[in-house]
């Protein structure tokens, strides 16, 4: 992806920032204009020049947020598992899983395609189902 690709994505509303969920103040701390070193690959993003290490730091921060959200999702799945156990309902509910897939595909802004985002959620749901079975 070139600098023009990133800038073009931002200008057309397919915001790279939205996908990466990093506030502008964090970006300004990561990448400053003209902060290039000889032999370093950089991309420009919202007027800042970002090196690979900057992007990796950004990914590390996003991973921390993702882990927190997955943990909260797991807590909700555990609670649902307890309710299913009490109501003698099966852990596996294919209609509900399909509804989740439909929902995340409908909310998917890209750059991952619908098939890729569903694949990610298939794995998440599989792990959550295993968590529910552990306590069922």
Protein traits:
single chain; 136 residues; mainly alpha; Chorismate Mutase Domain, subunit A; two-stranded antiparallel sheet; 2 strands; 6% strand; elongated
- Shape-level CATH architecture of the largest domain: Up-down Bundle
CATH superfamily of the largest domain: Chorismate mutase
Q: Please, what is the average pLDDT?
A: 80
| Top-tier CATH class of the largest domain | Mainly Alpha
**Biggest sheet character:** 2 strands, antiparallel
Radius of gyration: 20 Å
Structural class: mainly alpha
Q: How widely separated are the two ends?
A: 47 Å
Strand content: 5-15%
> What is the total domain count?
2
Strand order of the largest sheet: 1-2
Counted beta strands: 2
What would the CATH topology of the largest domain be? Chorismate Mutase Domain, subunit A
User: Which residues form runs of ≥5 with pLDDT under 50?
Assistant: 17-36
Number of continuous helical runs: 6
The outline comes out as elongated
> Percent of residues in helical segments?
55-70%
């Amino acid at each position: 992806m070139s600098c023009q690709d990133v800038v073009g994505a931002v200008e057309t509303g397919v915001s790279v920032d939205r996908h990466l969920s990093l506030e502008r103040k964090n970006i300004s701390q990561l990448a400053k204009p003209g902060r290039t070193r000889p032999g370093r690959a950089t991309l420009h993003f919202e007027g800042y020049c970002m090196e690979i290490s900057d992007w990796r730091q950004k990914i590390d921060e996003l991973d921390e947020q993702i882990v927190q959200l997955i943990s909260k999702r797991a807590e909700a799945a555990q609670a649902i598992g307890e309710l299913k156990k009490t109501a003698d309902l099966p852990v596996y509910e294919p209609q509900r899983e399909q509804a989740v897939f439909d929902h995340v595909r409908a909310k998917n802004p890209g750059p991952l395609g619908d098939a890729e985002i569903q694949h990610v959620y298939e794995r998440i749901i599989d792990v959550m189902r295993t968590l529910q079975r552990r306590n069922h």
